[in-house]
Write a structure and sequence with these properties.
Layout: E1 2-5, E2 8-11, E3 17-22, H1 44-56, E4 59-64, H2 74-84, E5 87-89, E6 91-93, H3 111-123, E7 140-145, H4 151-167, E8 171-175, H5 181-190, E9 198-201, H6 209-218, E10 221-224, H7 238-247, E11 254-256, H8 263-272, H9 275-289, H10 293-308
Length: 312
């Protein structure tokens, strides 16, 4: 299978572990100190050390989920990928408005212009890399769904969907703890997006097993990522939800993400057990519960690779 990473199109031969949702690098403009809430992710020594630990423990690829305008730096993603020998796939599209500094241009684009911008980042290169010798391309289109579709959110969402239909590229959906995700999944299909090219993120925060089973049966991927967040009581809820979905026959629908999103969390993960150790322990946990190795492979990386795979 071929996928598009910051290094270009690569062939995936071995199904290594994949972090399906993480934020590796995000910086605020030096001229703006207030007005938006995106945390900084720029502690290079810690991040590099964590990614090297991930690689050492079987990690092969991570999906960086920060789009243009809220701190993304494709040049730095390429640098980190090169230094750690870890594959990184990155996103175009957009995120919630509060993650952007005042005056961000993307919110003033009309649907046609936004669609053209997203397609440019896929086919030509990320905006911040266009003046560089190495043009980095996005491999995924990100859409934030906040529970309803109105105003500028609908305008940009329709642009992102049209770009996905035009290119055939996969879509990663930020949900607000799964709020009204069943409505948005219907909208995506109505607009021509195939469920097999969509991953619904943070949905384990909505502990509705019947909903999860229904979405998975339609072909949508579900990304679980509260394992490192004690406030969501993952030992009590998230692991049980994952086990229930696997027992219901949906091991081919689940992905694991760390959703690390700020410097302090990278440091906490490194000091507590290690970034790679988290995924290694997840592998051991799944192996202890299920004897079928395909289940473990699917959840830890196989599903993510199929989601990212390019057609034609």
């Amino acid at each position: 299978m071929k996928i598009l990473t910051v290094k270009g199109i690569i062939d995936i031969v071995d199904l290594n572990i994949v972090d399906a949702h993480v934020h590796i690098w995000a910086t605020k403009p030096e001229s703006i100190t207030t007005g938006y809430s995106i945390p900084e992710v720029n502690d290079l020594p810690t991040i590099k050390s964590c990614l090297e630990d991930f690689k050492k423990n079987g990690g092969g690829l991570v999906i960086d989920c920060t789009p243009y305008g809220c701190g993304r730096d494709g040049n730095m993603l390429y640098y980190i990928s090169d230094k750690t020998r870890l594959e990184i796939a990155c996103v175009t599209g957009f995120h919630r408005r509060e993650h952007y500094p005042p005056g961000s241009e993307i919110w003033d684009l009309d649907t046609e212009s936004a669609e053209a911008f997203f397609i440019q980042e896929i086919k030509i290169g990320l905006k911040e890399t266009l003046n560089k010798a190495k043009k980095i391309k996005a491999g995924i289109i990100k859409i934030p769904f906040t529970g309803s579709l109105t105003g500028v959110y609908k305008k940009l969402t329709d642009a992102a969907i049209r770009a996905a239909v035009e290119t055939g590229f996969p879509v990663i959906v930020h949900t607000e703890q799964g709020l009204n995700v069943e409505l948005f999944s219907d909208y995506l299909e109505e607009m021509g997006v195939k469920p097999q090219k969509v991953v619904l993120c943070h949905i384990d925060k909505r502990r509705d097993i019947a909903l999860h089973e229904k979405l998975a049966s339609r072909g949508f991927y579900l990304e679980y990522d509260t394992f490192l967040r004690e406030k969501y009581q993952p030992e009590k809820y998230t692991y049980d939800l994952m086990i229930s979905m696997i027992k219901s026959g949906f091991s081919n629908s689940l992905m694991i993400g760390s959703d690390i999103f700020e410097n302090s969390m990278w440091k906490k993960v490194m000091l507590r057990s290690g970034y790679g150790s988290f995924f290694k322990k997840m592998e051991q946990f799944l192996e202890s519960k299920f004897k079928d190795p395909e289940i473990v492979i699917n959840i830890l990386g196989g599903n993510a690779v199929r989601f990212l795979s390019l057609k034609g």
